[in-house]
Amino acid sequence: MAYETSAPVLSAPSGDTLARFAAIVGEKYAITAAQAAEQEPYLIEWRRLYRGKTPLILRPGSTQEVSRILALASETGTAIVPQGGNTGLTGAQIPFGHELVVSLSRMNRIRSRDARGNSMVVEAGMTLAAVQKAAEEIDRLFPLSIGSEGSCQIGGNLATNAGGLQVLAYGNARAQVLGLEVVLADGRVWDGLRALRKDNTGYDLRDLFIGSEGTLGIITAAVLRVLPRPQSRATAFVGFAAMEDAARTFDLALEMSAGELTAFELMPRLGLDFVLRHASGTRDPLGQPFPWYALVEVASQREDGASATAEAMLTRAVEAGLIADAAIAGSLQQARDFWHIREMMSEVQLHEGGSIKSDVSVPVAHLPEFLRRAEGAVLAILPDCRPLPFGHYGDGNIHFNVSQPVGMDKAAFLARWDDITAAINAIVMEFGGSISAEHGIGRMKRALLPQVKSPVEMEMMRAIKTAFDPRGILNPGKLL
Amino acid sequence: MAYETSAPVLSAPSGDTLARFAAIVGEKYAITAAQAAEQEPYLIEWRRLYRGKTPLILRPGSTQEVSRILALASETGTAIVPQGGNTGLTGAQIPFGHELVVSLSRMNRIRSRDARGNSMVVEAGMTLAAVQKAAEEIDRLFPLSIGSEGSCQIGGNLATNAGGLQVLAYGNARAQVLGLEVVLADGRVWDGLRALRKDNTGYDLRDLFIGSEGTLGIITAAVLRVLPRPQSRATAFVGFAAMEDAARTFDLALEMSAGELTAFELMPRLGLDFVLRHASGTRDPLGQPFPWYALVEVASQREDGASATAEAMLTRAVEAGLIADAAIAGSLQQARDFWHIREMMSEVQLHEGGSIKSDVSVPVAHLPEFLRRAEGAVLAILPDCRPLPFGHYGDGNIHFNVSQPVGMDKAAFLARWDDITAAINAIVMEFGGSISAEHGIGRMKRALLPQVKSPVEMEMMRAIKTAFDPRGILNPGKLL
Question: What is the ipTM of this complex?
Answer without folding.
Answer: 0.96
